[in-house]
Amino acid sequence: MHNRWWSWGFRSAVMLYFVLLIVFPICGIYGQSLSAGWSAFFDNLSEPLAWNAVLLTVKLALFATLVNVFVGTMSAWVLIRYRFPGRRLLNSLVDLPFALPTAVAGLMILLLLGPRSFVGELAERLGFTILFHEPAIVIAMVFVTFPFVIRAVQPLLEEMDASEEEAAYTLGATKAKTFWQVILPNMLPGILSGAMLAFSRALAEFGAVVLVAGNIPGKTLIASVYIFGEIESDNVGGATAVSVLLLTLSLLVLWSVNYVQMRRKGL
User: ∠111-206-32 over CA atoms, to 5°?
Assistant: First the structure.
């Protein structure tokens, strides 16, 4: 009886914590966005600046995700398949974007790409500017989402049975054919999960982007910065409408990640 009560209390405490921390805020943002009715919600969402900010955010988040898919997959491959000096240090630095405050990341990018930096001066000599334009936003998104694909692919590479590759080589398959037909299918669930998590995280990025984007309405103003501006302007309805759209996209992405992981486990 004591164990039963302890188990019930433990589960109840966890569920209460989950409800207070996750469910109530989500319900609150949806309720606030619809408090003035569906008409006001769609009016706030169809505001040209809001719609442009959302579309720009989705476009740049997709681009940053594609970059992370290629770079992250190659990085995971190198960290697992090769042994070289500094490998452990490099592997530990992968998680730096998780530990580093995003505002600090934005400042680092600002100093790296600013007009007084070597990269900034070189870009100006070539006739273009990186800072306060879309490329700077993509770089910031890539930096903060860099670990997702790597950490999702690494366990799959570690668990991969070497006998599958050896069998392919024995049957006369080239390294390229073995990679595309044996190795890549095993890595694909991790690549998809990492990509979706990276996309979801890029949608919500604020701290790193706000310092390097310039926040020009219709050009470099992304959704998270737009929400912040609407709150400062005391337009709660406009802020919550865009927030609900981003939240819904993130929930759909997380559901897709869970679906991919369940399929991989055969459940």
Answer: 165
CA distance 219 to 85: 44
**Which amino acid belongs to residue 44?**
N
Distance from C-alpha of 179 to C-alpha of 165, rounded to nearest angstrom: 8
User: Are 145 and 64 contacting, i.e. CB atoms less than 8 angstroms apart?
Assistant: yes
The residue behind tokens 């990018």 is: 109
In the chain the beta strands, taken as DSSP E runs, fall at none
pLDDT in tens, 181-234: 888 888 888 898 899 889 989 988 888 888 888 888 878 889 988 988 888 888
The sign of the CA dihedral 196, 197, 200, 206 is: negative
- 196, 242 in Cβ contact below 8 A? no
pLDDT at 251: 86
Mean pLDDT of the chain: 84
Q: How far apart are CA 228 and CA 213, in angstroms?
A: 14
Contact 144, 205 (CB under 8 A): yes
255: tokens are: 């559901």
Express each pLDDT in 46-80 by its tens digit. Answer: 888 888 999 999 999 999 999 999 999 999 989 98
From the list 171, 152, 138, the residue with the least C-alpha distance to 60 is 138
Exposure class string for 171-185: b at 16+ Cβ within 10 A, else e? eebeeeebeeebbee
Residues 6 or more apart in contact with residue 20 via CB below 8 angstroms? none
